[in-house]
Amino acid sequence: MTTVSLLNPLFLVGLLAVGVPVLIHLQRLHQSRTQHFPSLMFLERIQIPSRSRRRIRNWLLLALRSLALILLTLAFTRPWLSGATAGAAAGGEGKVVVVLLDNSFSMGYEDRWPKALEYARDVVGSLDAADEAAVVLFSDTATVIAETTADPALLQQALDDLTLSSRTTRFTPALRMAKRLFLESDRPNRELVLLSDLQASGWNGERSELPQRTLFRWVDFLLPEDGGPAPSNLAVASVVIRREASTDRERVEVITRIANRGPRPILAVGVSIELNGRPLEDRELELEADESKLVSFGPFSLPDGVSTGVLRLTGDALEADNGFFFVLSRAQALPVLVVDRPRVDGRGSGFYVQRALALAREPPLRVRRVAASGLGRESLEATAVVVLSDVAMPTGDRAEDLVDFVEKGGGLLVALGSRTVDSRYQALSEAGLFPPLTGTTVRRGSGSAAARIAFFDRTHPGFEEFAAPRSGDFGSARFFRYHRLRPDPEKDQVLARFDDGEAALIERQVGRGRVLIWASTLDRYWNDFSLKPIFVPFVLQAIRRLSDHRPLQPWHRVGDVLSLSDLIFDDEKSGSPEAPEAIRITDPSGQRSVPQELLNLDQAGFFRIELSDDTERVLAVNVEASESDLTPLDPTDLAAAIAPREIDELDPGRSGPKRDSAQSERLQGLWRYLIVGVLMLLVGETFLSNRRLRGGRA
Amino acid sequence: MSRPRVYSSLKQSASGRFLDPKALARISRLDLLARTLVEGFISGLHRSPYLGRSLDFAEHRPYMPGDDIRKIDWRVFARTDRYYVKQFDADTNTNCTIALDISKSMDFGLTGISKFDYGRYLAACLAYFSHKQRDRVGLVTFDREIVDFVPPSAKHLELVLQTIERTTCSRDGSLWGPVESVAGSIKRKSIVILISDFYEDPDRIVAAMGLLKGKSNDVLVFHLLDEAEIDLPFTEAAEFVDLESGERLPVVPQAARSEYRERIEAHISELRAKLTEGGIDYAFFNTSTPLDFALFSYLSNRKKAARVR
User: Fold this and answer.
1) Is pLDDT at B23 greater than 70 in this prediction?
2) Is there a contact between A43 and B240 if contact means CB atoms under 8 Å apart?
3) Least confident segment among A55-69, A370-384, A394-408
């Protein structure tokens, strides 16, 4: 039975108050100030209107005015019809329901995911004929898996074959998606059903207002029972890999921090490590509430090639974050050939370069030092980068070999000095290896007259390391002498300039290789650059740039997006770049596919990239550690950040949602109709009283 | 409540020779009041006026030394060469009946003295004055019927004054019945003085007065009203209560004042016109006017209007 209830019954007092002035007026008329007068003989003949004021003359006007006041008071009491169905508000116009289904990996705790799926099906199944719904699957992104439709079959179908993701939780994209769906629907009544474990880490407090008349519902069976503390959960908080390199082998130690994120101790925590699928070691430990411990594995030797490693945990109910994946490879020393000439001090023009290269760790370098005469095809065969440090340029076959080396992908660092002979240099310049020289050198002298580096392109790829503040002062070095280059705008990129604007460092792409031309020496003869702290990192970075060295990243995070071209190295030995269609990717679930240019790492585990030559690249991907914290947020905080701010706790035992009075009243909005009624009555009262006034005057 | 004994009230007011009615109200003895007042204004007159207006010629008598030579009928002397004086009815001890309205409406006054007190003082003065002129004075007090009746007699002055002094207003009034009774009680031509606020239809009043006048009486009418009854000076809306009927009427004085004044003025004018037309002497007294002044003015005018035959 439908009954009328009042949200603000106290306003009914106003209804009584409406009559009070009338009563007071009448009472005051009756008990007005009294004046005794000898005779009312003459006053009676005059005061007929005043006497008649005490009588109601126009009952219709009184009725209109009284009714208007009554309706106005009732509007303030906010009446609503209790017993009306959820979908019958304001005339039964139906509603639009948006189901936000959380499939972040934290929903894999115990049976949350199947329960959420089941409830989503119940919501879809309970729609009325006038209702429509949409389903949004969300984690850190939101995807509409079922656009708004009134067809329950389509909605149920969309819920089929849904699986958990490896991603984290973020509510904002899902709420924005819901808002878009609400606004696109013509249904005046709206319901947002959030099926989520309401992780606190997924909410940054950002306001995301929903449209008016939106009923917000959440479920309690995905949260800790009776509002209790969050469940405990184990996670790999961090991993550090320590390498110990020796002459013939490399050993690594894997140190991991295991954390118990929860209010209860976990007494039997198992930690194990696998390498290339083979168990190596395991440990057992106990963790108190909110405690973490370090566990060290190894050191153990790495085989050749890329190895895959897994850290596994046992002891909690959330499997998704119980594995930590990583890749390792033995460090490959990069062969560098330093070509220099002896000097009178016995150190050679490449001495300082060689000393800088000896400090390299990532990648390690294998440096060979030869004289200019030793530069040839044989020496270039096992070399990745060649450094020509103030030596005479090769000519003839050696020049051709050098050009060929660079064109095939080799790197060349040239430091120009006194041995730079114009004609030999010119020949290589004409071969396209170098920018031409002007034929003059700049002599600036020492002391304050010396030139300094006034500009260095710290944003250039390969030199981003110097972009950070206090990463090196190129301006500290003094240059006494340098060559004046003529960079070609179409081929050359000037990476550094002297204070007179002359190019100090030029990069040129030659075939698949690169050339860096340094306009001065890399020793102490023409400058003191080699004595400055910036020298060593510059030389090492230059070598990395020229070698196009890309260190193997031990792991990525779910959600990272990588460029395929960045991942695939051209194989200079095969001499042909990889064609995308020749590549296959196998994701951690075992699904094999042709990759797109952008690779979305959306699962935890190993992505294996198979190249055409049957070689393989392996990417290790791990879940975000933040998602391992299962602490839920307070639903009222979330509700407070979205409008309208109703909260309704669902009772799983009922067939439909339980709704509080404010929600029902807001949905029905009867007060609006009362206000319209008041306005209509006042219009009628105005018309009637004006008509009466005109009639009285007539 | 005893009235305070006042000594200075016997002195004339600083503004003139007439006594403030409020001052008169402080005189405890009515006889003293009447005497003071009457002798006060008589002393200011060249000759003592005569209350009676009806100077009907009665007879001649031979002149005797000491007679007022103004009474010598010079026509007779012309015809007879003898001195004869006229003798009027007034000289023959006329009955003077003072009818005082003591209905509740008379017990109203916002100027410091009620119409009732003013009327009492007026009645007392007239009684004293009449007695001083050797008339036989009587009194009738009435509201809706005769309350007190003192037959006219030369010895009844004290009784009249006492009756006036003790009388009170308590009931509603009606003019016709009492006047009819008075008219019926008068056997001989008399002076009838009616003191009232005349809150009745003018025609009915005139008709009632006609009962008295029809018997050849000399009828004097003193119409008393408080200034508030004339101006309606009230500022606040109030429920006006009729003193006699108890009827209540909400009144907004500001809204009613103008018309009310017109009506009361019209009433007074109509009464004056119709009574005068009927040979009845009409005098309107505003109770804020000094009683002796009002009386003096009236008697002066009356004296001028007298004809000596």
Assistant:
1) no
2) yes
3) A55-69
CA-CA-CA-CA torsion for A151, A155, A160, A163, nearest 10 degrees? Answer: 170
How confident is the model over B246-296, as pLDDT tens digits?
Answer: 999 888 888 889 999 999 999 999 999 999 888 888 999 999 888 877 777
- The shortest CB-CB distance from A43 to any of B104, B236, B249 is to B249
- Residue B80 is inside which H or E element, if any? helix B74-80
Nearest partner of B182 among B95, B112, B118, B104, judged by Cα: B95
Contact A43 B115 (CB under 8 A): no
pLDDT at site A266: 87
What is the rounded distance in angstroms from the CA atom of residue A635 to the CA atom of residue A387?
64
A interface with B, Cβ–Cβ below 8 Å = 29, 32-47, 50-51, 53-54
The pLDDT value recorded for residue A30 is 52
**Per-residue pLDDT averaged across A152-172, rounded?**
91
> pLDDT at position A529, please?
94
Per residue in A654-687, pLDDT tens?
A: 333 444 566 667 767 888 889 999 999 999 989 8
Count the residues in chain B. Answer: 309
Residues of A in contact with B247 (CB under 8 A): 40
Task: Determine phi and psi for A113, rounding to 5 degrees.
Answer: -65, -50
Give the torsion through C-alpha atoms of A589, A590, A591, A594, to 10 deg.
120
What token pair was written down for A561?
């997006």
- DSSP H or E segment with residue A666: helix A661-668
Q: Which of A37, A47, A54 sits opposite B242 (nearest CB)?
A: A37
Percentage of chain A modeled with pLDDT above 90: 38
Instruction: Say if the Cβ atoms of A42 and B264 lie within 8 Å.
Output: yes
The nearest CA of chain A is from the CA of B13 a distance in Å of 30
* DSSP annotation string for A370-394: EEGGG-SHHHHHT-SEEEEES-PPP
Mean pLDDT, residues A107-134 taken together:
91
Q: Do A50 and B234 touch (CB under 8 A)?
A: no
| Mutation site, A25, A31, A36, A54, interface B, largest B CB count within 10 A | A36
Least confident of A166-175, A562-571, B103-112: A562-571
Residue B128 DSSP SS3:
helix
Interchain proximity A38–B234, CB inside 8 Å: no
Distance, in Å, from the CA atom of B186 to the CA atom of B216, rounded to the nearest integer, reads: 10
Q: Which of B185, B192, B236 is nearest to B210 (CA)?
A: B192
Closest partner residue to B199 among A41, A46, A54, by Cβ?
A: A41
Residue with tokens 């002391």: A447
Our measurement of the distance from residue B238's CA atom to the centroid of its chain's CA atoms, rounded to an integer in Å, reads: 33
Contact criterion met (CB < 8 Å) for A38 and B229: yes
Judged by DSSP in three states, B228 sits in helix
Among chain A residues, CA nearest to B249: A51
CB B6 within 8 A of CB B27: yes
The pLDDT confidence band at residue A466, using thresholds 50, 70 and 90, is confident
Say if the Cβ atoms of A38 and B267 lie within 8 Å: no
Q: What is the DSSP string of A36-93?
A: EES--HHHHHH-HHHHHHTS---HHHHHHHHHHHHHHHHHHH-EEEET--GGGHHHH-
Write out pLDDT tens, residues B161-182: 889 988 999 899 999 999 999 8
Q: Pick A39's closest partner by Cβ from B199, B239, B248.
A: B199
Of A358, A49, A378, the closest CA to residue B237 belongs to A49
So what's the ipTM on this one? 0.78
Could you give the CA distance from residue A149 to residue A155 in angstroms, rounded to a whole number? 8
Contact B251 A38 (CB under 8 A): no
- Give residue A306's Cα distance to chain centre: 29
Alpha carbons within 13 A on the beta-carbon side of A675: 8
Arithmetic mean of pLDDT, B300-305: 66
Q: Which residues touch A183 (CB under 8 Å, ≥6 apart)?
A: A211
